[in-house]
Write a structure and sequence with these properties.
Order of helices and strands of chain A: HHEEHHHHHHHHHHHHHHHHH
Oligomer: heterodimer
Helix content of chain B: over 70%
Largest sheet of chain A: 2 strands, antiparallel
Shape of chain B: elongated
Strand content of chain B: under 5%
Number of helices of chain B: 4
Radius of gyration of chain B: 19 Å
Distance between the termini of chain A: 26 Å
Number of strands of chain A: 2
Order of helices and strands of chain B: HHHH
Helix content of chain A: over 70%
Largest sheet of chain B: none
Largest interface: A-B, 61 and 49 residues
Number of helices of chain A: 19
Strand order of the largest sheet of chain A: 1-2
Chain lengths: 492, 122
């Protein structure tokens, strides 16, 4: 089954070339067909990984260190599944109207983005990860600027940030290679010894990836780019693109460095994460444009993901069966479940916001008056996505937060509790503010004659939200699937 | 001070100066140049690490070449964007987010983006 791995990268890349050559008229549904085929391949791969464990592939039969090794373990398989599970509904959504995709170059560019994302998840090689990051970053920037001339400046800023982040990563990789003589992640991890040299590399890579994942206070590019992008692009950027750099950061921290980090760095990431939760949520409450609210919500949610480093680092040298091991396990599954629930809910939220903005020819909150009567499904999708992000039971967001709460209680790190709970309240706050803006108001007629939007657009948004709610009941199998790759070095 | 130390300090200095300029400069073309210099500094580190072994490590030279190709495509994309942002007819007039660009006139540059990213493909 190993041959599936290069296909996941080359398939969409070839698809992108093909789509660019074909007339624009047949691109939409051809892309959806390609996406469905890719989705089927990912389902097969996840099944293979669930039954037989890690899948390896050596490109052209060359073994490392000379050859390029591809590797999929449960963690990367779950990320591949998340990418396919969000991309397919977004592509169907994008067939609705040209207004949400901006330009017909959307179709090949999305396929190229998908190729870059898959390449990040299947590579076992530090340098190929850099190439994959750049492929992903360039396609993402090109997709942002499809939003028209108002998006160009934000797109350029995004390009500078994305390239700067990758350069810092490349600097770290050069230092790792200098010490270990290999680019293979696992191989480098076996040889690497902690010290100033290695820690400089880790700090560089952490800074670069935190920049690309938009960790507070390096987040200012994200709301600009995600809000200016076309409405079918924003869900891909917020749900998927920032997760790829987060994935790579987790890999580097725990596969290459085995969790060894300079004292204070994990706590610093945790503190920045908390600041992101507070700042992102408070600023989201004060926005008066729909897509700006949703973008700042992403800044806040990114904060939760970075708590992982603060929770896991103290548990690394703990003996098996200890309290710290339980903390690590709960934090690991908790953060990953939050990553997946955020992907589903945030994509649904951006899609719902896009439908409202197109129907009312404006994404200003004040122009949404009366939407709850005209488009109840869309408003419901937005509200339910907000509930998932806030982490109310029985959604997937709740299951993730519950694990983190347990990690805090068991590990005695009670101070994270305030942020976990307070962040949820603020999330409900801005969701409620948007929903209230869609109610009828006395003296406000609302926009005349809203545009008619194809039913499949709100339907796709609603479907993703429902998935995020229903998966809350299935968190146990998801957690069991991910458990074997718990990255802590001392754990089985 | 050995040759290695001199080049190491030089590379670090280039990266620091260029990153500061990239984050602080207002002019867009200046920022592209700063990005190129930062990338030059990082690639210099790669070549420097390669020079540590005898004969020099050719894997790192190949990586530096790939890095150059990626920098060239990024620079191309950035320059096209800057030309568009600063062109008189497109100025800074406020636009509705949902308005698509003029579909027929914008074909060329989009194709360039696609090729630009291919240049850096695996």
């Amino acid at each position: 089954m190993g041959v599936l791995l290069p296909m996941l990268v080359l398939g969409p890349l070839g698809g992108a070339v093909l789509l660019a050559l074909l007339p624009a008229r047949i691109r939409p549904w051809l892309t959806v067909g390609l996406a469905a085929a890719l989705g089927a391949a990912v389902v097969v791969l996840v099944g293979v990984v669930a039954v037989g464990g890690v899948v390896h592939y050596q490109v052209a039969g060359w073994a490392p260190p000379l050859g390029i090794e591809l590797l999929v373990d449960p963690f990367s398989a779950a990320m591949l599944a998340m990418t396919a599970g969000v991309s397919l509904p977004v592509l169907i959504y994008a067939t609705g109207t040209e207004l949400v995709r901006g330009h017909e170059a959307f179709w090949p560019l999305v396929m190229m983005l998908w190729s870059g994302l898959n390449a990040v998840y299947v590579t076992a090689d530090l340098f190929n990860a850099y190439v994959a990051l750049e492929l992903m970053g360039l396609s993402a920037v090109a997709l942002v600027i499809l939003g028209g001339s108002s998006a160009w400046r934000a797109g350029l800023r995004y390009l500078f940030i994305a390239v700067l982040g990758s350069l810092l990563y490349l600097l770290g990789v050069a230092l790792i290679y200098g010490q270990t003589g290999t680019l293979d992640m696992v191989g480098a991890g076996e040889v690497l010894t902690s010290g100033t040299y290695a820690f400089t590399a880790l700090v560089m890579i952490t800074a670069g990836m935190a920049l690309k994942t938009a960790l507070f206070p390096m987040h200012t590019w994200l709301p600009a780019a995600h809000a200016a992008a076309p409405s079918a692009v924003s869900p891909l950027l917020s749900a998927l693109v920032i997760k790829a750099s987060l994935y790579l950061l987790i890999r580097i921290w725990f596969t290459v460095f085995g969790g060894a980090a300079p004292t204070g760095l994990p706590t610093a990431l945790g503190v920045l994460g908390c600041a992101a939760v507070v700042w992102g949520n408070v600023v989201a409450l004060r926005q008066d444009r729909l897509k700006a609210v949703v973008s700042y919500s992403t800044v806040a949610q990114v904060g939760y993901f970075f708590l992982l480093f603060a929770y896991l680092a103290p548990a690394l040298d703990a003996p098996a069966g200890s309290t710290q091991e339980q903390v690590a396990l709960a934090a690991w599954t908790g953060v990953l479940v939050l990553v997946f629930s955020h992907a589903l809910a945030k994509a649904a939220m951006f899609m719902a916001a896009g439908v409202l903005a197109i129907a009312h020819r404006s994404d200003n909150l004040n122009d949404q008056v009366g939407a709850v009567n005209r488009m109840p499904g869309t408003v419901l999708a937005f509200a339910a996505a907000g509930v998932v992000l806030a982490g109310l039971p029985p959604t997937m967001g709740f299951m993730g937060k519950w694990q983190l709460l347990q990690a805090s209680m068991v590990g005695g790190q009670w101070w994270w509790l305030a942020v976990l709970l307070g962040g949820g309240l603020l999330t409900l706050g801005y969701t409620a503010r948007v929903v209230r803006a869609t109610f009828d108001r006395p003296g406000h007629a609302g926009r005349d004659q809203p545009r008619v939007v194809p039913v499949r657009m709100p339907a796709m948004s609603l479907m993703l939200t429902v998935t995020a709610v229903v998966l809350g009941f299935l968190t146990l199998p998801v957690a069991q699937f991910l458990e074997p790759v718990l990255p802590a070095g001392a754990l089985p | 001070m050995t040759h290695g130390d001199v080049f190491g300090l030089l590379a670090a200095g280039l990266v620091v100066l260029a990153v500061v300029r990239l984050l602080t400069a207002g002019d867009l073309v200046r920022r592209v140049i700063a990005l190129n210099i930062a990338s030059g500094g990082v690639l210099m580190v790669l070549v420097l690490v390669a020079a540590h072994s005898e004969p020099p490590d050719s894997v790192l030279h190949a990586l530096a070449l790939t890095g150059i190709v990626i920098t060239v495509s990024v620079t191309g994309l950035a320059l096209v964007l800057i030309r568009r942002i600063e062109s008189p007819e497109h100025g800074e007039q406020p636009h509705d987010n949902e308005v698509p660009p003029d579909a027929d006139h914008d074909d060329g540059p989009h194709d360039e983006h696609i090729q630009g990213a291919h240049g850096g493909g695996p």
